[in-house]
Amino acid sequence: MSDYLEQERGFEFQLLYNGVNKKFRERAGYIKDYNFYITDKLQKTVLDGADQIHSEVLDRLTKKKDKLY
Which of 1, 24, 37, 58 has the fewest CB atoms within 10 Å distance of its CB? Predict the structure, then answer.
């Protein structure tokens, strides 16, 4: 009888473990996806800002160059 109860307890524990493990993996996937999303968004913001600064600097240099000639 005790062997049967031990097997049942192990089975219940395995079910609980599998459920928790599945939920953990799902949440880890959500966090990873959110991390990629935020990283891409920040990278795009930084690159857009750098492009804008680069364009402004080139415009200023062109204006200065045009004044010299």
Answer: 1
Q: Amino acid identity, residue 32? A: K
Which token pair is 34?
Answer: 């959110």
Which token pair is 13?
């524990």
Site of tokens 């200023």: 60
Q: Specify the pTM.
A: 0.59
Per-residue pLDDT of 19-56, as tens digits, reads 999 999 999 999 999 999 999 999 999 999 999 999 99
| Largest Cα–Cα separation, the chain | 101
Which residue has tokens 């219940």? Answer: 12
CA nearest neighbour of 2 among 15, 18, 10, 13: 10
User: How many CB atoms neighbour CB 26 within 10 A?
Assistant: 10
Q: In 36-51, which positions are buried (b, 16+ CB within 10 angstroms) versus exposed (e)?
A: eeeeeeeeeeeeeeee
